[in-house]
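User: I'm curious whether this sequence folds into something compact or stays loose and floppy. Could you predict its structure so I can see for myself?
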Amino acid sequence: MWQIAADEPLAFELLSPRSVDEAVELAARHGKDCALMAGGSDLLDQLKLHTRTPRYVINLKSIPDLRALNVTNDRVSIGALTTLGELERHAELRRICPALGIAASRVATPQIRNVGTLGGNLLQDSRCPYYRGPWHCYRAGGIQCDARHGVNQEHAIFGGNRCYTVSPSDTAPALIALRASVTLRGADAREMPLEHLFMPPGENITVMHRLAPATVLSQIDVPVQSGTRSTFIKYAMRNSWDFALASVAVALRMDGGSARDVRIVLGGVAPIPWRSTDAEQEVEGKMLDTTTIEAAARAAVAGARPLAHNEYKVALVTKLVRSALMELTR
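Assistant: Here's the prediction. I'll summarize afterward.
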């Protein structure tokens, strides 16, 4: 019988590899019987609720190479197990990539940020209460989206396709706006733009990302370009702990009074971090004045399809995009 709450996970064996290669080998050996643990903020909840019951937990925190954070003139390289607190407190990172530093500082509480990792924040699973509760929704292998006709104040207004969960990551919109890439090691070793890591429900409804089994997200790289401005704004019911009802990250470069290389990415409103290309086009190559900003704010909600109880997100996104662009004019 399904339990709504549980105090203790089922018994498992904790494995502590000393290298990424060893972690990959263990993951390949144990397959579906194992789970990879970064900071553990998400995984431990799932273990306690028995929504995941692995026989082995592979503790990535024992791998020193995953904690590196290097800032150079042209690149910021961040190990996937760098904590959100470290990002929040890194003065040079906050100067070069303000959007990422702000986003890291808005995740949950200081206690969680001191444990939670950047990789874990990017790869966390859906937080939809129907998916995590005693229902059997599409994402959990069922035959309907309970949120579609249920309580859906916090659900998607873009990109819903049988599933209306939202991407819960605060750092993902900021990193995508900053053109970040990720390095994967293991069975599916490759480098790819971070925005391609996330899985739309129309493509595969059962997972939030494209990370293959026996593959580890090892590093996040952010290119640094002179003159880039960026910011991140999150709206939540409370300033600490809560997930975003909506957020926006904006990055652009000013060139002779015109905005170039504009990226506008929304969070908390779609199953994946949502790039608003319509809003980007309203700003690209133009002066960042009131007319341009208002056009971009309206374009950011083009195509939104709110559910019965979350139409407020349309006005909220409009306001957030307007505020973020206004901030970058100062």
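Summary: The CA atoms of residues 189 and 215 lie 7 Å apart. The longest helix spans residues 312-327.
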